[in-house]
Amino acid sequence: MEKSPAENPEKAGDVEAQKAGNAPKSGERSDQGEAPAVDHYDTEGKPDADKRKMTAPDTLGAKHQHPILAQPPEGFTGLKLGKPATVAAGITAVLKSGAFAWGEDGIARGTHALLKLNQKDGFDCSSCAWPDPDEHRSVAEFCENGAKATASDADAQRVDPAFFAQHSLVQLSHMTDRDLNNAGRITHPMVVRPGGTHYEPISWQEAFALVGQELNALASPDEAIFYTSGKVPNEPAFLYQLFVRQFGTNNLPDCSNMCHESSGSALSPTIGLGKGSVTLNDFYEAEVIVIIGQNPGTNHPRMLTALQKAKRNGAKIISINPLIEAGLQHFKNPQDFMNPLRALGALLGDGTQITDLYLQVRINSDLLVVRGLMKGLLEAEALNPGKVLDRAFIQEFTTGYEELIENLNNTSWDDIVEASGVSRADITEAANLIARHKKIITCWAMGLTQQKNGVYSIQEIVNLHFLKGAVGKAGAGLCPVRGHSNVQGDRSMGIWERPEQSFLDDLEKEFNFHPPQEHGYDTVEAVKAMHDGKVPVYVALGGNMLSACSDTEFVAEAMRKLRLSVHITTKLNRGHLVNGEMALLLPCLARTDVDRQHGQQQFTSCENSMGVVSMSKGVLTPLQGEMLSEVAIVSGMALATLGSKSTVDWVACTENYDTIRDHIGRVIPGFDKFNEKVRRPGGFYLPNGPRERNFTTANGKANFTCTPYEKHVLEPDQLVLTTIRSHDQFNTTIYDYNDRYRGVHNERRVIFLSRQDMAERGIREKGVVNITSHFEGQQRHAEKFIAIPYNIPRGNCAAYFPEANVLVPIGSVAYKSNTPTSKYVVVTVTPVEEPVGTRKATSAQRVAVPG
């Protein structure tokens, strides 16, 4: 075989080599590889998680005690309220996409970036992990949110030393999160020194030396935290965990701890892999698709194209969600405007109806709805013996069937209906729809994973699929839909605080060192350790843990106790402002940027939600400045910290990323011949045992689960709040103040309530309210939100994160996964006696951004 590019530098970035043949064929399921499946989730959950009752922060006093704000400023930006949409995408999405791309980057630069977005010879979108088609891809293979993310990454505005000289940390913290992000790209390494009020320039050499000095001064490597964002590609992620483990700790929390940790914790012991079991092509063969705890119209818009194609192929869709969302009602595909046969209908009609049956469930009771669906299947089987359940699959592949049936029989319909708010007739109708079909896919996202019962709810979904034999065959399977574009890939690369022994052994064999064996901190435990003063150094490879994690002011208290914070980033966010004695901003290249090392253009790779690994190669000339690649920054920190003690050739890894991939290929199962396979157009599929009905659990079986259910009783006047995302944001990155599908414009400090709940509390439409959360006798407060009546179940309410994260207690986590319960917060809402909340922020509440 031809030498890998790592052994032949002339091959690095070779376009022709990247167009090699042998691409996976559409619908081909056998080309999954033969290596063991990659998995990094505990089958037993996290029984050693810290269960202490943590002291509640002073959420009201903090904004007066600390001039640098940890929460977004409270000033309103001028609410304009319209009617919620019933159709997602359409011509508006097309116009919005162009406006964002051209507005921030200029027409030529923005257009060039969009045309290479998600293309086989381009770069991977940073806004979601939805897969790209194996074969043909459209000219515009992106959604509106992808255009926003790309425009943000490719921003031509500069946040340079002059900007930081003009704006103190206090002033920056009084800017909105939108204005912080939209200020531009950070161009130079910056530092806040002890007692400093501004970020100041620092050379790369001094910055790396400072990191090494502070890390090496620690009494133990476990006194440092190394956080990771799911946007980080495979190559820098692998190097990052290698650096951290050579340093001597497994303290590698990441954003997955806060989102889909519940998925992995549920799937690993039941199917043997903490990932989904479907491919994109399975959607086109599916007969029934269940969407639960997910809003694809805003969070994963490209998924709507797959759902539309599934509908045109005859699929039925069941949606289970507390809010009635536009993307789950109708979809106008922007691609149809370029099809003369569909253009007029797309322009004038309502588009494709997505949902056939909508079950508007109360928050945190999805588990009981899924049990109701299974009870309905058992009733249908009793009437039609041998025609509903897949007895052959159950007998050959599963264990625990009898225990499941007993658990279902012990759950009454009265309890299901009372807790969920969904009628028995509607649940039975959905069950009968499932009963008549065999090819079933269930999709879920953080609406499920961040519930108190998140792990158990997902395991009930798995139970339903086992009853139908709907795993491991075309058109059927389990589909956790992840958010960050490479959050699944980072876990595959070893970004995990609880590494498996086999992984550590392979690292030791490849790099000739003994990795640390003790478990490290996940995100919630890391925050607690910082709050206890046990961790003086915090390093973040991307992300915004301050705003992404629960209990914002608790996290801020923890971060103020640090000696050094290190932020590897492209743009400003609030997490860069709340620090301890010292802080570093280390600017890195974005996905859109051309990355040249040693005279050759490099590329990285990402793994999507369905286990496809593909290359990502920037196309835009970076802004003038001193930004480095993530790989170069990680290697620089490693060299400065480890010196001659390291067994890794960090320089070689930086000069040619194929060297990193050769290491990965020898360490990570499924990545053999990595450099060869990643150059196939469209990439390659990682091995997936459950997709082939090879259940790699401890007993080799697909395991039914007998899940518990804890009934949560509320006090009078209490509601259950869920945090949600607006249409103009990705995770904690805020692009603008609008949420047009829900009819909200130019405002984020809003809370959605049912009209009945508003009337009972004397809350008028657009009236100002304060919100208080209640947990273990503690209270947390958030002031000045505008009440909006909305179609949401009585007893439930919703508000945007990160604004509402201050209400989520750090100690409130999902069973087993230790994921913050941002989708289950007990609150009271009280009106405030002041004018209707549509006034704009005063000049004292805003800080203008130059240009």
Automatic annotation (TrEMBL):
Residues 719-819 form the Molybdopterin dinucleotide-binding domain. Pfam families: Molybdopterin, Molydop_binding. InterPro entries: MopB_CT_YdeP, MoPterin_dinucl-bd_dom, Mopterin_OxRdtase, Mopterin_OxRdtse_a_bac, Prok_molybdopt-oxidoreductase, YdeP_MopB. Residues 1-17, 26-55 have a biased composition (Basic and acidic residues). Keywords: 4Fe-4S, Iron, Iron-sulfur, Metal-binding, Molybdenum, Oxidoreductase. Its cofactor is Mo-bis(molybdopterin guanine dinucleotide); [4Fe-4S] cluster. Residues 185-567 form the Molybdopterin oxidoreductase domain. Residues 1-55 are annotated as: Disordered. PANTHER family: PROTEIN YDEP (PTHR43105:SF4), RESPIRATORY NITRATE REDUCTASE (PTHR43105). NCBIfam families: Fdhalpha-like (TIGR01701). Belongs to the prokaryotic molybdopterin-containing oxidoreductase family. This is FdhF/YdeP family oxidoreductase.
